[in-house]
Specification:
about 270 residues, Outer membrane lipoprotein wza fold like, about 20% helix, five-stranded mixed β-sheet, wza like fold
């Protein structure tokens, strides 16, 4: 009875010490994260402080553990590494070993995001992360972001790079969650810049505006604040580039759809 009490007391002290350690140390647990080269692990062997240590994963996906030497952990997650170490320690070294493994630093898996993102750059992948989560991690989209994201992903089996185009309008505005793909190690994501159209002449706010699908001439003019008092409303023109040449379309219908990079001109009325 007394021995059980002492054992429980030791365990409580160990757990208390572990809790205090977590408060002051930036450990992150990711059960589904596959450990790889460069990651740093902290290994705790209950009641065996001399076997507890911090290790960095080698290029061959192994770690050096006291008593055990080099241990292959290729393709393993944190829980599976802990289980493997317990089995190895139990094989002639310790009686009923209890091992905890924690990720101290993530180094092995990264992805890059560029283009119209607030904080472009390379980021570590800490466990499973979707495209939208990764965009959020990089600060979110800029105001000039377009409607597409391109993911460049290496295919090691075929020795080539695949391009995956994601329609951000469908994903974000229409909620097509099937487009919210998981980001993988080595991915490069590029957020496109939005196309624009221009409204000039006799409107309240002549300027360049972000192009959106299904926008008509009249909607574009309203977006620009509407006609001024001297606008020639029936003489609106569109300058459009076709085949590398600029063409002028006169007396356009107000319900006509505009295209990206169109220039809508509202002339002054002289009568």
């Amino acid at each position: 009875m007394l021995s059980n009490f002492c054992l429980n007391k030791k365990k409580l002290l160990f757990l208390f010490s572990l809790a205090i350690f977590f408060i002051f140390t930036p450990f992150i647990c990711a059960e589904n994260y596959i450990i790889g080269e460069g990651d740093v692990l902290s290994i705790y062997v209950y009641e065996n402080d001399d076997l507890s240590k911090t290790v960095r994963v080698n290029a061959d996906n192994s770690i050096r553990v006291p008593l055990l030497g080099e241990v292959d952990i290729k393709g393993l997650t944190v829980p599976k590494i802990a289980s493997k170490l317990e089995s190895l320690f139990a094989d002639g070294y310790l009686i009923n070993p209890q091992v905890d493994v924690f990720i101290k630093e993530f180094k092995s898996k990264t992805a890059i995001i560029l283009g119209q993102i607030k904080s472009p750059g390379q980021y570590e992948l800490r466990g499973e992360i979707s495209l939208l989560e990764f965009v959020s991690k990089a600060g979110g989209l800029t105001v000039d972001a377009g409607n597409s994201a391109t993911i460049k992903r290496a295919d090691s089996k075929k020795n080539k790079t695949n391009k995956i185009t994601i329609d951000l309008d469908k994903l974000i505005r229409e909620g097509h969650t099937s487009l919210n793909l998981p980001i993988q190690n080595g991915d490069t994501i590029y957020i496109s810049k939005a196309d624009v159209y221009y409204v000039s002449g006799e409107v309240e706010n002549p300027d360049a505006y972000k192009f959106e699908s299904n926008i008509t001439v009249i909607k574009a003019i309203i977006k620009a604040g509407g006609f001024t008092g001297i606008a020639a409303k029936k003489d609106v023109r569109i300058i459009r580039e076709i085949g590398g040449e600029k063409k002028v379309f006169k007396d356009v219908n107000m319900d006509e759809m505009i295209l990206a990079n169109d220039v809508i001109i509202v002339p002054e009325s002289f009568f």
